[in-house]
Specification:
It contains 2 helices and 6 strands. It is α+β, with helices and mostly antiparallel strands and 70 residues long.
């Protein structure tokens, strides 16, 4: 699998992770691996603190969307 963000820029970079929200393949330069709020997948979006303190991989667009809904 290749990094989706790199492919959009015409690069051919292997993905090392997958966004847990949208499933986008990501290279090390385009992923965010951090503790993020938990979303149950329902709408409207209601985020809860991560009580397990797990580092999760998300893409930048999904990370921005999650942070907007804190």
């Amino acid at each position: 699998m290749k990094c989706y963000q790199c492919a959009k820029m015409g690069k051919d970079t292997d993905a090392i992770g997958i966004c847990i929200v949208c499933g986008m393949g990501l290279c090390k330069d385009h992923l965010r691996r951090e503790e993020i709020p938990v979303w149950d997948g329902d709408y409207p979006v209601r985020l809860k603190p991560d009580v397990e303190h797990i580092l999760r991989i998300v893409c930048e667009p999904c990370h921005e969307a999650l942070m907007e809904n804190l």
